[in-house]
Amino acid sequence: MSKETKIEVNRLHKLDGDSKLKAFVDVSFDGFVVKGLRVVEGKNGLFVGMPQQQGKNGQWYDVSYPLSKQIHQEITEIVLKAYNS
User: Domain 8-84: which topology?
Assistant: First the structure.
């Protein structure tokens, strides 16, 4: 993202229990909010999943996603920092 863009965690809802799904997160940037990111425990540790919607065929599809690895990494770092604090 550009140097002027600031990504912020607006809401972080941690989940209890032994589920692989650990939290739901909403982030904002440039006056835009993305709701429904997920913190998930994978086989290589925690990762941030993008919001998804179930299609009529029963499969899940990403609703929004970053356009570059750099933006994805920046979102992941900010979300996991908020999750771990």
Answer: Arylsulfatase, C-terminal domain (3.30.1120)
